[in-house]
Design brief:
about 100 residues; 5 strands; single chain; 1 helix
């Protein structure tokens, strides 16, 4: 599956981001990877496991690299890492409200 987004990874700049679901193990995990976008590499694993109380625990493992190597890290690395962290923390808060 190919998914296209419009994102603003830094400084209000709007970019096209295309990811592909590259691996799926039903009820266990799926992986999305960037095909076009702002990162030189994006690999995102979504893992699911049933908890003893019958709920589902979701764990994200995200690895990404900024473009332009060390220069990209110096210019935007910390703000982008903070924004990615904020996005995932916000998603967890929203999901908790919906599910509870």
């Amino acid at each position: 599956m190919i998914i296209s987004y419009k994102i603003s990874p830094f400084f209000g700049l709007k970019l096209l981001w295309v990811t592909e679901i590259t691996q799926v193990k039903e009820n266990c995990y799926f992986v999305d990877e960037q095909r076009i976008g702002p990162y030189s590499m994006w690999h995102h694993e979504h893992h699911f496991e049933e908890t003893p109380d019958g709920k589902v625990k979701m764990t994200d493992i995200v690895n990404f690299k900024m473009p332009f190597g060390v220069f990209g890290d110096l210019i935007a690395g910390t703000p982008v890492k903070n924004k990615v962290r904020f996005i995932f923390e916000s998603r967890y808060r929203i999901l908790e409200k919906i599910i509870i």
